[in-house]
Amino acid sequence: MPERVQIISDLVRLDIDADGIARLLLNSPETSNGMDVPFLQALHAAILRVHGEPRVRAVVLSGAGRNFCAGGNIKVFASKGEQLPDYLREATAWLQIAVAALTQLNPPVIAAVHGFAAGGGGFGLVCASDFVIAADSAKFMSGAVRVGMAPDAGVSVTLTQLVGLRRALHILLTNPVLDAAEALDIGLLTKVVPAAELEQEALAYARQFLGTAPKAIGATKRLVWGGLGATLADRLPEEARTVSELSGTADSREGLAAVIERREPKFRGE
């Protein structure tokens, strides 16, 4: 069995266990995991490490402290004065490549959300995750327009896909604080659980992917995320190419054999 892998930084912690579950922890509780350039660089580095670990089968994304992520580090932003536009260009660039890298991971990403998920950081990561398990006490808010800014982290695209145009405009322009029940009802979340059970439920959700075919999971994710805004005609050739490619894998042959033999498949990622 592979050895456990741990990478610890001051701001982001990545722990990959022997089963192939990567736990990605936003680790700046004193700022409610507020994002600035060093934080975003650490997040991007951790996501890239997951990209480089083919044995990872699922990722659980969570936040340390009272909140999942309160968005940008407002105190750092305010300290920049007239240099803020230049600083935000850099911060936004790092946020964009981190979010893009997260959506392009082959293993599914399960966000485990407690406290507040707000701003481009918190709300954006929620929208960019494949599944979102939230504590029943969690709160969600866009918040960008409230401070004279606009949404980032791809939220102008992902939120509309998740909840529809009218609801997305309402959320982005009027900045309501959504509780977990409301967020679940409009399609922002996958599941709501009691706060005391959040970690256990997120890990249980991740474990269901341990026995699945990783190439098929990754290919399906790419088709779905890559299809945002595309037409049906645009995506049909890519679907056909992907299905043909997967049919040549050992896991595909094993899956077909398992159906014929009426047994559970044993996928190896090959």
How would you portray this structure in words?
By secondary structure, the chain is of the alpha/beta class. It is built from eleven helices and ten strands. The protein has helices spanning 37-51, 74-79, 84-103, 119-128, 155-163, 165-174, 180-185, 198-207, 214-226, 232-247, 250-261, and strands spanning 5-8, 12-16, 21-26, 58-63, 109-113, 116-118, 131-135, 139-141, 178-179, 191-193. The strands form two sheets. Strands 1-2-3-4-5-7-10 form a seven-stranded mixed β-sheet, with helices on both faces. Strands 6-8-9 form a three-stranded mixed β-sheet. Helix 3 (84-103) packs parallel to helix 4. The longest helix has 20 residues, at 84-103. The protein starts with a strand and ends in a 9-residue tail after the last helix.
Give the helices and strands as they follow along the chain.
EEEHEHHEEHEEHHEHEHHHH
Strand proportion = 15-25%
Write down the overall mean pLDDT. Answer: 93
Q: How many individual β-strands?
A: 10
Helical region count? 11
Structural class: alpha/beta
Shape: globular
Rounded to an integer in angstroms, the radius of gyration calculated over CA atoms is 19 Å
* Main β-sheet, spatial strand arrangement: 1-2-3-4-5-7-10
Ends apart, CA distance between termini: 17 Å
Low-pLDDT windows of residues? none
The major β-sheet equals:
7 strands, mixed
Q: What is the helix fraction of residues, given as a range?
A: 40-55%
